[in-house]
Structures are given as structure tokens and as C-alpha cells.
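=== Structure Prediction Worksheet ===
Name of assembly: unnamed complex
Input type: mixed (protein and possibly other molecules)
Chain count: two
Listed entries:
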Amino acid sequence: MTTLAATTLAEHIGSAQIVVCCGSGGVGKTTVAAALGLQAARMGRRAVVATIDPAKRLADALGVPGGLSNEPVRLTIDGPGELWALMLDTASTFDGLVRANAATPDQAERILANGFYRNVAGSLSGTQEYMAAERLHALHDDKRFDLVIIDTPPTRNALDFLDAPNTLTKFIDHPLFKILMLPTRRGLKVLNVAAQPILRTIGKVVGGAALTDAIAFFQAFSGMETGFRQRAEEVMNLLHEDVSRFVLVASPRADTIEEARYFADRLQHSDLSVAATVVNRCTPTFGELPASRPGDSEGAALYDNLAELKAAAVAERTQASELLADEAVHTTWVPTLPEDVHSLDSLDTIRGLLFDSASE
Amino acid sequence: MGPLQFLTSATVTIVAGKGGVGKTTVTAVLARAAIRQGLRVLVVELDGKPTIERLLPGIEVLQLSATAALAEYLDTHGFSRVAKRLAKTGVIEVVAAAAPGIDDIVVLGKIKQLEMSGDYDLVVVDGPAAGHAISFLRSARSLMDTIRGGPVHTQAGEVAAMMTDPARCQVVLVTLPETTPVNEAVETAYALEDRVGIHLGPLVVNGVDQGGVLPAESAESGSALRLAAEFRNARRTMHATECARMADELALPQIHLPLIAGSQLSADDIEKLADAFLQVSAQ
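=== Predicted Assembly ===
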């Protein structure tokens, strides 16, 4: 593990097949993911960057005016490699998985048409993260690419797909699913809703129609768990292989670093480790202060400004280093730009800051 | 509009915005400013963030989760026997999937109950997690359509009545003076007005680097002084430009909170920002 920890970000990008970027919102995680992809392409790799963020930030960062879709689009860049990008559509990825795992086309259609399924596919917590893992697997198998970079959603449960495969999809292992499936296993095909007090209660709260839909979904889904679980195990294995790397993205703000540490613990809990940390949007450093503060107002204003920025940079660096606490992991400090990143040119500036400057 | 007028124009103020823009900071600043004005204040935290309590010593904070709110709701609606079991087994997830928005409506229902209690002049809600603001605020209307009767329908109706009454509820959108956050704030503002019919209070722009243009060219080219001044000027220009662009696109008053250096805000910083808030909103 020590050899991996000492590896620089550039070395990771040169050798990995999968890079998972995690971190909280507002730290420029999407921009960093895109910049990693740009660097990979410059190094001659065929990289694809996948985002889950529906806020079109990746499209913004890449300067793609029409936005991105569920299918990868190739971007025009300088350099020997290729850069592709896509925005993950959770619902259609889920649909694909249902079609692939259903025993018959009829079973697939029954599930896809179910109202409860439509809600689950779009909104049940954990679904988005699970579908990201699923898509990661598919992109890794796609011969067009040799590096997949995933920009995870900016939530605490972004890494929930790392849970042991038997708890991977919440609805499969859900108590309600078990309640519903138990009588089926006993051979009682017709489920008596009224016999289940818990279902009666739910029915009173949400209304009968919603409950009927839910029951129909779980019954139609019966038998597909095995396929889902197997796929989930494959994803887990892939993430545990040496080809996968986890990059934490934070800003010097304490709350974002706390989130990064939360993710680091989360990875450790699943026997995985952080490959590199990026602290983005740091106050830049400009050089030493002159020996004395000038007497004229113009000179004093310039002196004070440099002193203020310097103090801010030092404070950020000290506080952030303390919070990061893990000296074994390579950290790259990226200064903030005075402007937003929304073109390939400004993305290239970030790429330069990530890879070209000496950082420790 | 004076600060007191803004802080008392609605009993419930929901602070909303994308992740990383500083919703929790703004929630804390509004609460602190309101306390200074002698108001009885309750802070409601939806994101489970413990930081808010550290930022607001002496102010009442209620951590509200959908699970706890649903359990309480069921308990008070005659389902007490199964309420605990439901909450414990995580069935709430399935209930929420069966009727999207039900987890949100129990949370909003609890907020409505606090509003109706008369115990508070101001209830500040540290808004829902990033990305959920619109669906969260729309949940009452959606549920009234999907569930045609029963206790949830009634609850949704009462919540909708609160949310569309500007004297009872307002939303304060928080953003940063940068391109993407401003675009997102503009989109969210239109969506909230069109699709939720909720009253929007002033926009709060967080972390604005204020101050005039520094005489960068009076320093030697390439020097640290010059580069630092150019950086500061470029950032201040961007902040001013983005605030102006937002003013063009959204006819809402803006309250700018100054940039505070350092990686971790303290209760003292919140006091300073509350000063700034009371000063600017008095102008």
C-alpha cells in the first residue's frame, strides 16, 4: 500500500483503468474529474468522463454547449489520446439492467410499466449510486475506452455501492420485499394484503393504488435478484483490483475536508484506500512580502492585499493539512482561478495546475 | 426593506441553494441577526449537519429527519403500534417510493406545526440537501394530485396553504458570485415561482469579495504585489459582474455577505456576518 500512496496523480492517471472521484458539493469535483480526463487524453489514453450531476456542470466545464447525454460524446482536443464525456441517466441505465436480467421480455415490460418502478428508478436513495457503479462496469468493458473516470454525486451516500453486495440494492434486501416474497416462496402465490398489518398501515397512509403498484413491482421483480447481485459482486471485485483508484476532492474549507475524511473512512471500511487527494480552490500564493509596508496609500493598499492573501493561504494550508491528517496519501493543492471554468481552455489551465506544477 | 421587516415578513424562512454555496452559514446568520432583533427564533436543520449548533451557541436548533417526522406523524394519527416498527425497518424508504414526496411532506408538516404553535417569531430552515430543493418544496402540490383522500391529502393541503402564503413562508435562495452558481440560482428561482408558487425573499450572495479596484499597475510587472493585486481585481470584477448579471435576470433584492478568510467559520464569524447582514439590509 505504501507504494500506491507515494504515487503521484499523474502516475495514477497513466496506469489506472478506473478513477472514482468523490467529495462534497461546491468543491469543483466535476471540474477536477474533467481535468483528469483531459490529462489522460494528453498522455495518449482513451478516457471517458461520466458524471451523475444533473446540473450540467460537466457540460459547462467542457464547454459543450448542447449539454451531454447518456451516450458518450467525443470532444475535440489537442493531443494523441481521446476524451469522451457523458451524463449518466439513472432511469435509462436501470431500464437496461431490468431488460438484461428479466427472464422474459414480458417480465421486463411489466416492471418497466409499473408506477412504483418508475418512482424507484428515479428517486429511491441508493439507486443513483448503484446505477453509477453499474455504468462504470459497462464502460470498463467498452473497448472504445481504456480509462473510465466517474464523478460521483455530491452526497454522503455516493459510495453506498461499496456496501457488501448483499445490501447493495436497497429494495432487493428491503424488509418489505422480504415480507412480500416470503409467502411466494411458501407457494402462496396470491398475497393477501389485508393479512399483513404493516401493509394495511402503509395502504392507509399512501393510498391503495400506490400500494398495489408496489406489490406488483416486487412480485414482477421476483427472480431477478440473483442477476443483480452477481453484477454487483463483479463491480465490487473490479473496484478492489489494482486497476481502480479513488481520488478525494475537497476545498480548503473545513466542512469539505470533513466530508473527504468521511469518504476515506468509508473506503477503508470496504478495504479500499484513497489513491490521491486534491484540495481545490485554494487561495493562490504570489511570493514574498516586501520588507516594509510603503507609506503611500497606493503602495500600502497593494502591500495589505498581498499580506491578506498570504495570510489566508497559510491559514488554509495549515488548517487543511491538520484536518487531512493522512500524510501517506499524495495531496495536490490547486489554487483557485479568478474566473469560473467553462471552456476547454480554462479546463486546460486547471489541468496544468493539477499536473504541471510541483506539488507534494 | 429593513432587516426587521425582512426577518418578520414570514414566520418560516426556508434557506435553499445548491451544495457548497453556504446554506448553513446563511441560516446561522439569519438566526443570529433575528436574535439580535429580539425575535424568538428556532433553527430547523434538515441535513443532519451538527455544525450549525457550534455556530449558534444559545439558539434553539431542531434536527429534523424524515424518518423521525414520519414516525411522529404515524404516532399521532392512530398508527402508533406500527410506527416504531416502520421507522426501524426502513419501510419509510418504500413508502416514500410508493408515494414520492411523502417523506418531504411529513417534514414540512412538522415545520407547519411549529409555525402554528405561536412559540416562535421566526423559524429558519436550513434547506434540503443539494438538488432536492424544488421537489421538496413541490411535494405538497404533487401529493395532493397523487393521493386523493385520507390524512396525507389533508396534510398536503395544509402545507400547501402555508407555503403559498407570503405572510407565513418565504424562500431565501443562497448563491455564490460565480457563473455556474448564479445560473443555477436563476433557474431555481424561476422554477420555484412557476411551479411552486412560493414567495421568494431577497437573494443572499455569499462570500462576495468587496472593495474597490487596486492600483495593480503601480507595482512592478511580474512582482508578487502586482500578481496579487491583479488576482484580487479579477476576482472582484467577476463577483461584481456576476451579481449584476443576476440582478438583470432576477428582479429580487440581493444581500451580499462578505468573504471571510480561513477554512472554518466560527461562532464569532457568524456574529460578524450578522453585523454585515443587519447593515446591508438596513440600506
